[in-house]
């Protein structure tokens, strides 16, 4: 089972984006106050428990607790902020993203397993 690291600093975000040159990054932006985000979290964790792509680094930003970091991720990756949202980063740039009810184990598998 892969694990998801909680990001809380700009340095962690910058390091992970830079490291995506060697290992892709899946960034999950999660709101702890939103039932849609809770369902998306369940989908992401279900994917992580069932043969996830181990060649991907998994990270989460709590958009409530770390709003500035969430905004920095949106700005630096040039992806409009949504929550919940997943952003797949390779070689420092987003290559796929989706949000809300489109975050499913099937969508994750379809986009991550082919890397």
Domain count: 1
Strand/helix succession: EHEHEHEEH
Strand order of the biggest β-sheet: 1-3-2-4-5
Structural class, please? alpha/beta
The CA-CA distance between the termini, in Å, is 17 Å
Helix content, binned percent: 25-40%
Can you characterise this structure?
The structure is a single chain. With 115 residues, the protein is of the alpha/beta class. It has one domain: Glutaredoxin. 38% of the residues lie in helices and 27% in strands. The chain has four helices and five strands. It has helices at residues 10-19, 35-49, 67-77, 105-112; strands at residues 4-7, 24-30, 56-62, 85-90, 93-99. It has a five-stranded mixed sheet with strand order 1-3-2-4-5, sandwiched between helices. The longest helix is centred in the middle third of the chain and has 15 residues, at 35-49. It is globular and about 30 Å long. It starts with a strand and ends with a helix. The model has no long low-confidence stretch (mean pLDDT 97).
Keywords:
115 residues, alpha/beta, Glutaredoxin, five-stranded mixed beta sheet, 27% strand, globular
Structure at a glance:
With 115 residues, the chain is an alpha/beta fold.
Ordered list of secondary-structure elements with their pairings:
Elements: E1 4-7, H1 10-19, E2 24-30, H2 35-49, E3 56-62, H3 67-77, E4 85-90, E5 93-99, H4 105-112
Helix pairs in contact: 2-4
């Amino acid at each position: 089972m892969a694990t998801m690291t909680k990001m809380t600093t700009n340095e962690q975000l910058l390091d992970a984006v830079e490291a995506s040159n060697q290992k892709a990054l899946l960034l999950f932006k999660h709101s702890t106050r939103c039932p849609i985000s809770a369902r998306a979290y369940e989908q992401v964790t279900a994917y992580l428990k069932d043969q996830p792509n181990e060649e991907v680094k998994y990270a989460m930003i709590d958009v409530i607790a770390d709003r500035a970091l969430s905004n920095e991720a949106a700005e630096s990756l040039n992806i409009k902020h949504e929550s919940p949202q997943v952003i797949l980063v390779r070689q420092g740039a987003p290559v796929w993203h989706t949000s809300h009810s489109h975050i499913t184990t099937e969508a994750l598998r379809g986009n991550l397993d082919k890397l």
